[in-house]
């Protein structure tokens, strides 16, 4: 899908479909009022006839416009004109708009919704949301279907802008396109099945990515190199799989040589069967999504490379399968991590923290500004927070606050959980420095406590994306989260760095 800005009526007139907002009680937005006058009250006639009242997110498609100005028009309800429109509700009405638009034969459209006032948001944000929501709604993973399904006919969306907001709108368009493509890239990887998307496949994708931009380079650490580094925790997981583990390292150098990098660590379990602590079979297919942290790191690098941000960023993706096998970890096994700390593996299904802990130790060598890891780490996170926010934990309040703020801007919410010392006791082992599980109470927190022991030397935050990286049920599919949040965090960081 292509997007551009439209600044004159003549450009707009070349499109098939006009998208206009109408408030409750049939009150016009500026553009719909203008178009209503231009058509001698045609819009008023239709909304009165069809009793379209402008309830938030309701839509009405008009398939005939006098004088052939357009082939059709999609009207979308903006809700109460006397109440500020929230960011969430703006996204909601964009979602219903694109749904209605997809149901028309239009191949291109002019969207006038960037003119609608949204509480605390400027045109940069609004244009970006239009691109993100529209392109997101047209995503389908159909590469592996032998017959093409219903394909989306939409090719081009023009978004209206004025001279006053032109610069803002251009930045919004650029960020929106970068973000929408990054999210799509992540979703494609995440939706790919485990027999296609293996650790080697992920590594291959990372290598391809670095060919786009000479600020970006990729190096893959193989198992023998990891063994030399002493990554006993990571390698104990991949030992139970026929697929060799990889540690993907991406370096994006857009900033000064001296400026410390932000390190992003993404869990890349391309399939998590649980190992010897085998998972129940129902719903196990969804464990192909256990690499969503890694896929999101790759997505963020795709966005970075499009936006050319003036910062340094490192991506580290430990990637492996977790399978039952004669050589797999057994409950009670004790392994030595790269940090030297020993771990008693009481449950082989708590494998994410095993591959992450060695990667966190490895991150130290980059002298990071901050380290942020993202992982589909615990089912307990879904119990605690449901599927709306990602869990956020960390050892640095300022970093957590920055992530919280970026999450709100990006409409990719997080909610913080405590990382109190009291919880650390649950990881006590009689035979090793720590156990890899902390019992049934506070599973998301004890998982983060485990990771915190490998993140003592830098500012660190952990995102548990178990509930947010994909959707289950008949809408099953990847969401691309938390690519929006992390990209926003990097945009904010580079704005602050250059000020
Ligand atoms: N990848 C899973 C976590 C998960 C489960 C994410 C369900 C999304 C949906 C992780 O490796 C895992 O299995 N965690 C265990 C930890 C437990 C053994 C302490 C879990 O959550 O059950
Ligand atoms: Mn597991
Ligand atoms: Zn897992």
Report what the structure shows.
The chain is an alpha/beta fold. The chain folds into two domains: 159 residues, Leucine Aminopeptidase, subunit E, domain 1 (3-Layer(aba) Sandwich), CATH 3.40.220; 315 residues, Zn peptidases (Aminopeptidase, 3-Layer(aba) Sandwich). The protein has 15 helices and 21 strands. Strands 8, 9, 10, 11, 12, 15, 16, 17 and 19 form a nine-stranded mixed sheet that branches. Strands 1, 2, 3, 4, 5, 6 and 7 form a seven-stranded mixed sheet that branches. Strands 13-14-18 form a three-stranded mixed sheet, with helices on one face.
Keywords:
binds manganese (II) ion; 9-stranded mixed beta sheet; single chain; binds ligand BES; binds zinc ion; 499 residues; 21 strands; Leucine Aminopeptidase, subunit E, domain 1; Aminopeptidase; alpha/beta; 7-stranded mixed beta sheet
Summarize the SSE layout with pairings.
Blueprint: E1 2-6, H1 9-12, E2 17-23, E3 27-28, H2 30-38, H3 42-49, E4 59-62, E5 72-77, H4 87-102, E6 108-111, H5 123-137, E7 156-160, H6 166-191, H7 199-209, E8 216-221, H8 223-229, H9 232-238, E9 246-253, E10 262-266, E11 268-272, H10 292-307, E12 312-322, E13 333-336, E14 342-345, H11 352-363, E15 370-375, H12 379-385, E16 390-394, H13 397-409, E17 414-416, E18 434-435, H14 443-452, E19 460-464, E20 470-471, E21 477-478, H15 483-498
Parallel strand pairs: 1-7, 2-5, 2-6, 6-7, 10-12, 10-15, 11-12, 14-18, 15-19, 16-17
Antiparallel strand pairs: 2-3, 4-5, 8-9, 9-12, 13-14, 16-19, 20-21
Helix pairs in contact: 4-5, 5-6, 6-10, 7-10, 9-11, 10-15, 11-14, 13-15
Bound molecules: ligand BES, manganese (II) ion and zinc ion.
The site of ligand BES has 15 residues, from α12.
